[in-house]
């Protein structure tokens, strides 16, 4: 069984299928091995306290994430590059466990609590791998009265995300901040570029969580995006995601997604 110190180490496997007679190339992401961690929960059955969070997904219900979500300890959160990743979690070695597992999406950070020992309240202190789950998700793997339970977890594809990647726009006339949501495949983003109808491809820098920014004047132009997955390194291009009259505060959906 993996140690807590090593539980952040993932072994990922990739495969490609060339579709003969065409140009399609499929890059797949398959589950990692199981690793040891612990899990707790925050909030109540409504999961209202899980809304927002360090990934910037806002209202998790209206944006399609539901209540099957978790905040990750910083060891797994990886400065926000873990936002959108999907994990199967099952309770082990506790009388409070239920059988089976549940699948959650990483939507928040569980920060360290240096005032408490990592074995007595500071559950998210490095180097611990820890999941602070929304209460409805936790109750699928254990009785909530347990408080904290040992778990086994593994990365899995986010292929239950349906439709294209969604881009939520914030910022101002000179600064475009884009939150990426509903990312399938490995679920994560390493790099983004934006292109207006009057520009070339502009490199976007990582702001925080699942957001990327471009310091450019892009109003009045239809926008396309290019994205690279953090885990698989696959790059896809979403053309003409937003029309020329796009507005800040709105979300636009592409026709493409990772596999």
Automatic annotation (TrEMBL):
<dbReference type="Pfam" id="PF01357">
    <property type="entry name" value="Expansin_C"/>
</dbReference>
<dbReference type="GO" id="GO:0009664">
    <property type="term" value="P:plant-type cell wall organization"/>
</dbReference>
<feature type="domain" description="Expansin-like EG45">
    <location>
        <begin position="52"/>
        <end position="163"/>
    </location>
</feature>
<dbReference type="GO" id="GO:0005576">
    <property type="term" value="C:extracellular region"/>
</dbReference>
<dbReference type="InterPro" id="IPR009009">
    <property type="entry name" value="RlpA-like_DPBB"/>
</dbReference>
<dbReference type="InterPro" id="IPR002963">
    <property type="entry name" value="Expansin"/>
</dbReference>
<keyword id="KW-0961">Cell wall biogenesis/degradation</keyword>
<protein>
    <recommendedName>
        <fullName>Expansin</fullName>
    </recommendedName>
</protein>
<keyword id="KW-0472">Membrane</keyword>
<dbReference type="GO" id="GO:0016020">
    <property type="term" value="C:membrane"/>
</dbReference>
<feature type="signal peptide">
    <location>
        <begin position="1"/>
        <end position="24"/>
    </location>
</feature>
<feature type="domain" description="Expansin-like CBD">
    <location>
        <begin position="174"/>
        <end position="254"/>
    </location>
</feature>
<dbReference type="InterPro" id="IPR007112">
    <property type="entry name" value="Expansin/allergen_DPBB_dom"/>
</dbReference>
<dbReference type="InterPro" id="IPR007117">
    <property type="entry name" value="Expansin_CBD"/>
</dbReference>
<comment type="function">
    <text>Causes loosening and extension of plant cell walls by disrupting non-covalent bonding between cellulose microfibrils and matrix glucans. No enzymatic activity has been found.</text>
</comment>
<dbReference type="InterPro" id="IPR036908">
    <property type="entry name" value="RlpA-like_sf"/>
</dbReference>
<keyword id="KW-0134">Cell wall</keyword>
<keyword id="KW-0732">Signal</keyword>
<dbReference type="InterPro" id="IPR007118">
    <property type="entry name" value="Expan_Lol_pI"/>
</dbReference>
<dbReference type="InterPro" id="IPR036749">
    <property type="entry name" value="Expansin_CBD_sf"/>
</dbReference>
<keyword id="KW-0964">Secreted</keyword>
<dbReference type="GO" id="GO:0009653">
    <property type="term" value="P:anatomical structure morphogenesis"/>
</dbReference>
<dbReference type="Pfam" id="PF03330">
    <property type="entry name" value="DPBB_1"/>
</dbReference>
<comment type="similarity">
    <text>Belongs to the expansin family. Expansin A subfamily.</text>
</comment>
């Amino acid at each position: 069984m993996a140690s807590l110190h090593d539980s952040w180490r993932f072994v990922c496997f990739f495969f490609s299928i060339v579709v003969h007679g065409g140009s399609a190339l499929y890059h797949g992401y398959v589950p990692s091995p199981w690793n040891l961690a612990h899990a707790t929960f925050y909030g109540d059955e409504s999961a209202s306290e899980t809304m927002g969070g360090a990934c910037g997904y806002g209202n998790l219900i209206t944006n399609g994430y539901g209540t099957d979500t978790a905040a990750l300890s910083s060891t797994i959160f990886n400065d926000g590059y873990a936002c959108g990743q999907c994990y199967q979690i099952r309770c082990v070695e506790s009388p409070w466990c239920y059988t089976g597992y549940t699948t959650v999406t990483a939507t928040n950070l569980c920060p360290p609590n240096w005032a408490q020992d990592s074995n007595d309240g500071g559950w998210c202190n490095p180097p611990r791998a820890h999941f602070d789950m929304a209460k409805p998700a936790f109750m699928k793997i254990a009785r909530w009265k347990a408080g904290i339970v040992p778990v086994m977890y593994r990365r899995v594809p986010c292929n239950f995300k349906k439709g294209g990647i969604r881009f939520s726009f914030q910022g101002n006339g000179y600064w475009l901040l884009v939150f990426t949501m509903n990312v399938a495949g490995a679920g994560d983003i390493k790099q983004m570029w934006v292109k207006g109808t009057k520009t070339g491809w502009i490199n976007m820098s990582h702001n925080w969580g699942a957001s990327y920014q471009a310091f450019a004047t892009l109003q009045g132009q239809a926008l396309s995006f290019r994205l690279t997955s953090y885990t698989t390194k696959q790059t896809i291009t979403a053309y003409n995601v937003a029309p020329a009259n796009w507005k800040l505060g709105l979300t636009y959906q592409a026709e493409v997604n990772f596999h």
